[in-house]
Amino acid sequence: MAVTRVMTKPTEPTTTTTTTTTVRTTRTVRTTRAAAGCAPLAKKPLPAGRPREWYVTHNRRLKAMRLAIALLDSGIHPPATADNRRIRETADLIGVHPPSDATCRMVRALIRYGR
């Protein structure tokens, strides 16, 4: 939005002109996180002393949540449309390693029960 101020003599009132331009496109553009300017949150160290399986499950949940959010943002709302191929393509798009079948099932469960 551009604002232009017209300079006049002190005896005359000043006027402000506002110009608004709206551009609509019908094409969807896909970008990566780096190109979109979305930086991931700063990572904090995980608590020490837990069993290894806890860390594996925790990281799987985090990845599934990231993928579910990305799928919902891209318009994939019914879990049936989120097959393994589409979930893996989304993982490649947002820059994470391809998920396992278990993680793909978790993504569909998050989409299904997150409503």
Write a structural description.
Residues 1-26 are annotated as: Disordered. The two termini are 37 Å apart. With 115 residues, the protein is mainly alpha-helical. It has a domain at 50-115. It has helices spanning 33-36, 52-73, 84-94, 101-113, and strands spanning 2-5, 16-19. 43% of the residues lie in helices and 7% in strands. Helix 2 crosses helix 4 (101-113).
Question: What order do the helices and strands come in, and which of them pair?
Answer:
Layout: E1 2-5, E2 16-19, H1 33-36, H2 52-73, H3 84-94, H4 101-113
Antiparallel strand pairs: 1-2
Helix pairs in contact: 2-4
N/C terminus separation: 37 Å
Largest sheet data: 2 strands, antiparallel
Based on DSSP secondary structure assignment, what is the total number of beta strands?
A: 2
- Which residues form runs of ≥5 with pLDDT under 50? 20-35
The strand line-up of the biggest sheet is 1-2
Q: Would you tell me the structural class of the helices and strands?
A: mainly alpha
Q: Could you tell me the mean pLDDT?
A: 77
How does the overall form come out from the CA principal axes? globular
Strand content: 5-15%
Instruction: Please compute the radius of gyration using only Cα atoms.
Output: 23 Å
- Helicity level: 40-55%
Order of helices and strands: EEHHHH
- What's the tally of helices? 4
Concise synopsis of the structure shown:
The protein has 115 residues and is mainly alpha-helical. It has four helices and two strands; from the N terminus they run ββαααα.
